[in-house]
Amino acid sequence: MKNITLHYAPDNASLIIRIILEELQLPYTAVLVDRSKDEQNSQSYLALNPAGLIPVCIIDGEAITETAAIAMTIGERSASSLVLSPDHPQRAQFLRWLFFVANTIHSDLRQVFYANKYVGDNAAAQVEFRQCARERLAGNLTILETQYKTAATGYLFGDDPCVIDIYLALCLRWLQLYPSAERGTFTLTAYPSISKMFAVLQRRPAVIKACASEGITGHVFTNADFVNPEFGSAI
Ligand SMILES: N[C@@H](CCC(=O)N[C@@H](CS)C(=O)NCC(=O)O)C(=O)O
Fold it and tell me: What digits encode the pLDDT tens for the residues 162-211?
């Protein structure tokens, strides 16, 4: 990978990829997608990602979308421990939990954050829909908490963090903050093993550097605070 460009917005799913790039010390160019101008739906951005979602990562001229796919691609191409290789005995379990975070947890989150996109403009319907999504999330996070409880090192696989640990940390960071009118509705209290992992993860230099470059400081996973300056948000 000679040339990497990350299209990002502060505290968006692109931050998962930025942390991975920093962990691997890969050089990259970050290009801001200004959500206050709805740039994710501009013609030029839709040409990269027709779904109008952030992130897009261009690797050696190829546009890649979907956070988990980008994470897998970068991790595999750099033969890093962030991704378990196809011959690793725990590869199937690794894929299982990566998909769980990507297509269950992250999807549940989108339902909490963007209820209007699922049920339309009816405010009462949105409240009910968000409540259902939050209840489903609580159940799914309990399943993950059980996995982390049995993880010997605190990380899901082995001594070092993998892309799943990072992905989950960002998901639960956002859930602590957004929608901002509901800040505080979600806490990590019910998930002590996950929370313990986050406390270690957030001290890693790559995490601190990636977050700081988007204006995010402090205990970024265990005691999330908004982007400062107030420039960008996950939703
Ligand atoms: N399935 C996508 C979801 C990405 C996603 O939800 N991105 C959010 C920002 S964190 C976004 O682009 N939101 C704008 C929108 O939904 O219009 C992925 O994994 O990359």
Answer: 999 999 999 999 999 999 999 999 999 999 999 999 999 999 999 999 99
Q: Can you give the pTM of this predicted structure?
A: 0.98
Q: Where are the domains of the chain?
A: 4-77, 91-212
The yes-or-no answer to whether 4-77 and 91-212 have a common fold is no
Give the atom of ligand 1 at the shortest distance from the alpha carbon of 55: 20
Q: Which fold has domain 4-77?
A: Glutaredoxin (3.40.30)
pLDDT in tens, 109-130: 999 999 999 999 999 999 999 9
Class of domain 91-212: mainly alpha
Atom of ligand 1 nearest to the CA of 14: 10
Q: Which ranges of 101-204 does DSSP label H, i.e. alpha helix?
A: 106-113, 115-119, 123-149, 163-177, 192-201
Pocket of ligand 1, beta carbon within 6 A: 12-13, 40, 52-54, 66-67, 106, 110, 114, 234
Which helix (H) or strand (E) element contains residue 59? Answer: strand 56-59
